[in-house]
Fold each of these.
Amino acid sequence: LIPIPSDMPQDAAALTEPLAIGVHAVERAGIAETDVAVVIGCGPIGLACIAVLRERGVRMIIASDFSARRRELAGQFGAHRVLDAGTASAV
């Protein structure tokens, strides 16, 4: 356990784990800037992956989710293409 600073908002503290998982996933993938990344599921961890991929300069990030709100967030977080998982395949 790591203590949370008293001045850190709880909602920000709650996002540290999903962000850490996203960073770890992108590192494990060994993706290069010239690769195409596909993120299936745009919940907190998927959005973290998209943000990290974008920060690392990946040229094409495709995101897929059933939720219209999560697809909207995926675009805001840096996905280049966003697909409705109910109507289009990300593969």
Amino acid sequence: LNSQRFKMLEIFIINALSDNYVYLLRNEQKNITSVIDPGESEPILQFLNKKKWHLDEIINTHHHYDHIGGNNKLLDLYKSKLIAPSYDYNRISNIDVPVSDNETHNIAGISTKVIHTPGHTLGHVCFYMPEEKCLFSGDTMFYLGCGRVFEGTMDQMWSSLLKLRSLPDDTYVYCGHEYTLKNSDFCLKYDPNNTFLKKKSTKVSYKSLFEDFHSVDLIG
């Protein structure tokens, strides 16, 4: 289990399912604990029980089951507030706070901008915390790649990636899956002479994802 400390938050990275990442946010000063995209409940429950923390908020980036599968059990146990895209209101049950593009909401006590990023799904959103310099990109953007386009169009996905590229270069990006090795292989297959990719591919390991993870590396 990895974690990173920022100004107000400590972010814990929890492995779930086969290759999902779940993010648990702890604001010790305000005594708020939040979880982003709980694809399953058990590893989150184990962690919360160990820490003896109450879960105040659940946040979803989109409606796919591997990102919301743990919602109901966590809601039943903790009566948490559920924050999710307004665009998925009929696809994610029990939403308390539906959020839309360019809105600002407090998540774990931190001012957070909502960025609508259609492509992977039509309702997908990302959550950006300017003060903490953190982006939770769900399945829109990964290290060396982007999410598969299921419901949107390629043009929509490209527009969504351009939105994320406009964020500051020192933004830490927390994505929804560990696809780094596969993405590296795919990129080199079609762009074998790219020196940037060659350099990055030599450093790829399952531990490297969060060692140097900035938006400038992802989209250029």
Amino acid sequence: MTSNVTIPIANVTPVTPRALLVQLNLEKKNFPFNAGQAIMIGQHGLDLKRPYSIACSPEQAASSRMLEVLVAVESDGSPGTHLPTLEKGQLVDVEGPIGSFIFPELPIEKNLLFIGGGTGIAPLRSMLDHALRMKLKRTITLVYSARRTEDFAFMEEFDHYARSGQIKLHQTVTRDDLAWQGVRGRISLLNFKAVMQDPAETLCFVCGPTAMVNQATLTLNELGVPREAIRTEAWSNKS
């Protein structure tokens, strides 16, 4: 079931040089969704809308009364013609939720592997928070790729999850970055071999640029992950 609501922007916070975290105030409106789903957003009164993954879990949205999305912006700071202005108090029209890239009600696999590239981290953040709240007795791993160190979003909370032993975290950068001391290069077979313990018992969620998603799907399948256990969302024309 989808809803159409007009709600104000509550906050706009830069999280990387090319992405903003936008919080939309639900106020007293009801907007149920599943972890991993997306919404269509456009400035109030305009016909043009664009899909964005919801970056918070259903539990977070219910508690804060906010929907959160990660909005990629151009070099001039603009997200596009569907949102000519992006500032606190601006009304936006929201439709949704949409999409079948969702976290299952109760995964049967022993391992959960989240693979994100760029702004594709948004729905994975929603799923991760939801999964952790479920207190599943599963091994949870996040493999996260970005252009440079500064392009990783939500690292404070992901680092907290890793330090507290709730998840295993693996990062890689794909561009030259003197500040980065970790793994370099695109997500590849070596990354998956380093984190994969039992491919046949691993449920994977992949979201990012189309090329990354396609390559990750092929590699995971070659390693023995069943095709039905690889859930994907190619975020080529979305944010």
Amino acid sequence: MTANGVVPDMDETLISKKSTGYIIKFLFMYRAYIRLFFFLWIGAFLIPISKINRALAVRCLYFMAFRGLRVDRAEAVAADQLAQLYITDLQDP
């Protein structure tokens, strides 16, 4: 049995905007409203941490947002509704 995973653009090198907006849109489209509420609440507490260690704050946000989601449903939501947004935000090389 092999494990599946979803890999986001954590260091924001591919897109021109911050990835936090994509996470919020994804959680809304996934209909994970309770998780979205906690994501925004915890995000507010991680802002001071991000000034000291941005990588740690980003990892905590991604862990909280995506841990335990069903991969097949996450892929479907991302492919159906976020793909076009992501394509328009790609940085010009």
